[in-house]
């Protein structure tokens, strides 16, 4: 070969390298230094007044105060309950325990106050609460569990009953407390910045008490636990609204009960948001009415709950229905997956003061939603479904959980999106190619030459063997036999090592074990199917495809629901701005849902920041006194 300059040689080397090797040596070194995923081990506790849910422990403040929380897929903040949150009862001790231990701001020396704001999560469902915000030290896990501790993280201390115990936000978006200060980063972003997790992603399932001998929740930050679910090959792209991104199309609901024909419960397909902050499943009112018909549920107007008495409970137990939710990327057509919930998943107990209840009661965790802003799959659904969310690629998957006595945790990492582009961009200088990259290319090229030699060797050997033994071609050409001896396997073996980059540390492409879809259905998030570098679409193309998928979803949304989702601009060429896309928090927007018995229990003595004190907020200290009338639905 005649090469006129060093540049030509490089171009050729790059070409060879891209065509035949999935990762350059440079990328390998970048990935080898990635941190492992963080497994956030749950407690043995089951908390909540809207059912019983497995909780997690955080260490908050200086000195540490321990609080129990639920993971919240829709929030980016940590929320704790203040002692004032027990003002509704005379028994502080039992309330303190029931609310997962309260956090006393005055007892912490590291609390750095920000101000009072509304939490603003799921306000469409009436969930708004006020909280006193500050920067505070928060550690993951109980004493001696070795979880990381981060300083200056965003914490909201609430008193309201809207959220009964605290939460640990899994969303990586940041919070804007005011338009003139820097947005405050989320806990997840800080974990990644401090190299505690490999990427802005997580895997979560809520656990349940009815399978085996109680199944604890599972939460993996920066990866997922592949032992907890049956993988499927359907992966979803985020919906465009970052306040409502983990959205699936719900195409059908089917009930199969003992001794009865299967029945469909959903007349019109809808889009559903998956949010672990919400306990119930919120469905269109028409679908709820179908549930009422089939199962004999009766809507309690006083509490907005489907309370279940002992008679009805026995009937439901004997029917023992399985409810199948059929999910797709959109509300009709395309590939679908089924998530099946047994009746046991719906057999929950509500306790006072939930929804103004005065006595504990069994209830069926189904809620009436009036439009697409209110259709939500809550924790009830996540008892049987495993949710893997990759915020960097803006994609997620939902899978049916498996429950095995002998299940061994198998944690797999989700890689960061920008690890490789960052590495080749940094320290590049004017030449464009760094010494590292050149070294990588050189190594790759040597590998290529070896591969060619090995291939030649293989061909020779195959012919040789063929002549002798007849048929051993296919297995010899298959690169997966990494363990075989001899120079023959050297080529394929080298390649598979490059593909598995960092597999020794448990990092695999996400979601590694999912099957390859049809070429037409290739989704931006399903990068696992590409065998070689040359097949992987560039970043811009990836985003472009995501956009068109989202546009399609919007279109269908308009067509089938007559509603219009808010479109946030996604530039096909720019990397997703997930880290700095902030959620607005409006201090003037303090609202809360009053208790059903007329709001005599004052539990939210939080006023909004003084900047907003134009008129009505200055007159009274207790926001609920003013808001009661206005927000009774
Ligand atoms: C909170 O901490 C302060 C300071 O340590 C203490 O005076 C106060 O009694 C505590 N409040 C509660 C409810 O424990
Ligand atoms: C936390 O915030 C305080 C006050 O803004 C600041 O003094 C301190 O340096 C910060 N600590 C870290 C680790 O950023
Ligand atoms: C958040 O604050 C920054 C300035 O710090 C501002 O540029 C941005 O528009 C704000 N975002 C929202 C959603 O308010
Ligand atoms: C519900 O599903 C379980 C597990 O798949 C099965 O054993 C049971 O027979 C099903 N029940 C009905 C009524 O279909
Ligand atoms: C009823 O639904 C179950 C679960 O979806 C399915 O296995 C079964 O075949 C269905 N039966 C009929 C008669 O369609
Ligand atoms: C139980 O509830 C069902 C339907 O909600 C109702 O028809 C029945 O009278 C109730 N039974 C008792 C004993 O309250
Ligand atoms: C609540 O329970 C108490 C004692 O069991 C009973 O006296 C009372 O009537 C119940 N209240 C309601 C509203 O059912
Ligand atoms: C959806 O329904 C809720 C409750 O009825 C209502 O407050 C909200 O405005 C509705 N949103 C839309 C977009 O129609
Ligand atoms: C990528 O580079 C940017 C700017 O140099 C930096 O802020 C960011 O932390 C880097 N990301 C990673 C994953 O290293
Ligand atoms: C926030 O509300 C609490 C409770 O009402 C009050 O003590 C505190 O001063 C308020 N903080 C700010 C910054 O307004």
From TrEMBL:
Keywords: Membrane, Signal, Transmembrane, Transmembrane helix. InterPro entries: Aspartic_peptidase_A1, Pepsin-like_dom, PEPTIDASE_A1, Peptidase_aspartic_dom_sf. The keyword Transmembrane applies. Gene3D superfamilies: Acid Proteases. Residues 54-399 form the Peptidase A1 domain. It comes from Phyllosticta capitalensis. Pfam families: Asp. Belongs to the peptidase A1 family. Residues 473-513, 594-614 are annotated as: Disordered. This is Aspartic peptidase domain-containing protein. It comes from the Eukaryota.
């Amino acid at each position: 070969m005649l090469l006129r300059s060093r540049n030509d040689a490089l171009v050729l080397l790059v070409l060879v390298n891209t065509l035949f090797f999935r990762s350059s040596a440079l990328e390998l070194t970048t990935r080898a230094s990635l941190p492992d995923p963080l497994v956030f081990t749950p407690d043995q506790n089951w908390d909540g007044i809207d059912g019983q849910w497995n909780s997690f422990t955080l260490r908050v403040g200086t000195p540490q105060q321990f609080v129990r929380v639920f993971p919240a897929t829709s929030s980016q903040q940590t929320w704790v309950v203040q002692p004032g949150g027990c003002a509704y009862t005379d028994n502080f001790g039992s309330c303190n325990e029931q609310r997962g231990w309260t956090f006393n701001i005055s007892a912490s020396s590291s609390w750095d106050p920000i101000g009072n704001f509304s939490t603003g999560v799921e306000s469409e469902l009436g969930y708004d609460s006020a909280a006193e915000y500050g920067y505070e030290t928060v550690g993951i896990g109980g004493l001696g569990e070795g979880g990381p501790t981060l300083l200056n993280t965003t914490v909201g201390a609430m008193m309201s009953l809207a959220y009964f115990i605290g939460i640990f936000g899994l969303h990586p978006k940041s919070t804007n407390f005011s338009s003139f200060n820097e947005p405050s980063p989320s806990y997840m972003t800080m974990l990644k910045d401090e190299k505690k997790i490999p990427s802005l992603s997580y895997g979560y399932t809520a656990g349940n008490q009815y399978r085996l001998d109680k199944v604890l929740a599972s939460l993996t930050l920066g990866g997922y636990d592949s032992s907890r679910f049956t993988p499927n090959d359907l992966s979803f792209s985020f919906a465009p609204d970052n306040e409502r991104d983990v959205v699936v199309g719900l195409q059908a609901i089917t009930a199969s009960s003992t001794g009865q024909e299967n029945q469909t419960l959903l007349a019109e397909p809808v889009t559903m948001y998956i949010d672990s902050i919400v306990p119930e499943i919120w469905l269109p009112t028409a679908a709820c009415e179908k549930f009422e018909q089939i199962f004999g549920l009766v809507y309690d107007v006083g509490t907005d709950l489907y309370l279940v008495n002992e008679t009805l409970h026995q009937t439901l137990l004997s029917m023992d229905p399985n409810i199948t939710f059929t999910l797709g990327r959109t509300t009709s057509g395309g590939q679908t997956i089924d998530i099946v919930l047994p009746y046991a998943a719906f057999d929950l107990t509500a306790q006072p003061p939930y929804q103004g209840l005065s006595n504990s009661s069994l209830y069926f965790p189904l809620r009436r939603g009036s439009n697409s802003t209110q259709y939500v799959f809550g924790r009830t659904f996540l008892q049987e479904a495993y949710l893997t969310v990759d915020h960097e690629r803006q994609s997620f998957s939902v899978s049916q959980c498996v429950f095995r006595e002998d299940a061994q945790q198998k944690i797999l990492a989700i890689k960061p999106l920008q690890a490789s582009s960052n590495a080749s961009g940094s320290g590049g200088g004017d030449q464009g190619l760094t010494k590292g990259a050149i070294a990588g290319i050189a190594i790759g090229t040597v590998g290529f030459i070896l591969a060619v030699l090995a291939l030649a060797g293989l061909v020779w050997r195959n012919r040789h063997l063929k002549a002798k033994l007849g048929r051993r071609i296919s297995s010899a050409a298959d690169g997966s036999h990494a363990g075989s001896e001899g120079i023959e396997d050297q080529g394929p073996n080298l390649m598979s090592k490059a593909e598995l980059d960092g597999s020794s540390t448990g990092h695999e492409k996400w979601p590694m074990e999912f099957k390859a879809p049809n070429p037409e259905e290739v989704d931006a998030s399903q990068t696992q199917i590409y065998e070689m570098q040359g097949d992987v679409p560039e970043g811009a193309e990836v985003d472009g495809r995501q956009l068109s998928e989202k546009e399609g979803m919007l279109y269908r949304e308009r067509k089938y629901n007559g509603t219009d989702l808010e479109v946030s601009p996604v530039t096909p060429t720019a990397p997703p701005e997930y880290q700095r896309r902030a959620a607005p928090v409006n201090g003037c927007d303090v609202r809360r849902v009053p208790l059903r018995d007329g709001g005599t229990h004052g539990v939210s003595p939080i006023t909004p920041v003084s900047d907003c004190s134009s008129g009505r907020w200055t007159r009274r200290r207790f926001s609920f006194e003013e808001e009661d009338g206005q927000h009774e639905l």
